[in-house]
Amino acid sequence: MYLWSSIKSFFEQSLTCFSVERPLWLPIFSMVVLCILLVGVVSPVEGLGSGKSHGFNAKVLWVIDGDSVEVSRHGAKSTIRLYGIDTPEWKQPYSNLAKEYLQKEIAGERVEIVPFYRDTYGRTIAIVKHKSKNLNEVLVEKGFAWVHVYYCKKPICAQWKKLERDARISRRGLWRQANPVPPWVWKREQ
After folding, report:
1. Which positions are annotated as active-site residues?
2. What's the sign of the alpha-carbon dihedral 97, 59, 85, 155?
């Protein structure tokens, strides 16, 4: 509704732009601002927020931890947080499993980033793919990560929860422990 009223207001102002009281640059400036606003509303940046977004390729510069990597694209660095999963914090048991796996698989490699949104820390929350493998999913399947109970809301999360259950039953990775503590619980207890 706001967008429609802005467009209507713009055209009303444009029709009166040739009056002597109003400078000619004002409607032109208004039109430019409106176009910028429309582009910002309609087209997502890097596909952020759209579940049907196309990914982009980037080179992995550094594996920060089991669920975060730093990448470079066109010379610009950015931090990618793997969507929907959480790996043990560095002081937790098995914290090295996911990081070592990612280092072996993707350090220095080109990956596909399928972004969803940016978090409050400015990180791009995304699915990371390498050689057609969804690494978010692989980490869960190998027992290196939990499906995040608060942040994994997309349809793919149902499949990941089944993979997590299978890893738990098979006692793979962090599920070798009797009662592994999810990172979001562990952080609250610290």
Report:
1. 81, 89, 123
2. negative
